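Service request form, structural biology core

Requester: graduate student, group of Dr. S.
Request type: structure prediction, single chain
Budget code: on file
Notes: please return the result as structure tokens.

Sequence provided:
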Amino acid sequence: MRELLHRVEWAERALDAGRWRPGPGDSAAAAAVRARLAAPLPARPDADARDRRLQRLLRTVLHHLDGGAVSPPAAALLAAMARAFLPWHAFPNPPVAAAAPAYGTPVRAADGTAAVPTGAGEALLPRLIGLFTVLAAPLVPGAVPRTPVIGPWRIVHEGRFRRHGRPAPGVWTAETVHCPGCGAADGPWRVTCDWRVAVLGCACGAETREHGLAFSEIWLPSAVDG
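Core staff response, request fulfilled:
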């Protein structure tokens, strides 16, 4: 949650200073995410309904994060949101799919129901709604999009990356990514990403951009491990 707050503060400053004027791709993604953020919260006793609402929000974030149509600062903000919401879910993809990835262990209350690890997420909702409202607003006539520079993301990931596909409704496939140099799969991987293209570096020295992974397939497992 601290990472998300940092990104929110950075985005607010960039927007206030005019360094970020979202283009159509950012605005469209922000409008979709804002609609999920502003949806009414289910009553607290209904933990399952609350979890479904948060999962719909997470899926919307991942859809736009992986779509490749947003700018680097928008991608960084969406990635921070995905990481913040991830502890509430075992499966961003449908759990009925045997090949769907499991990112970490869901947080559970004593009675076995899904449990929110902290109230900080809900406390941040009004601020997030305000931020995404600004991001979703169309440019004033005559203005042109402006994108601030944002630093790359770097992390070392111990473990495997799995590339997932959905060739047909209800059908999922999974393939482990291997180093093109030595064939290793378990890392450590040196991940460098400019918020558009991710490069995987193997311990043998080989690097690859041809891994075919969606951004969330790199970001979410690495975020859990890191």
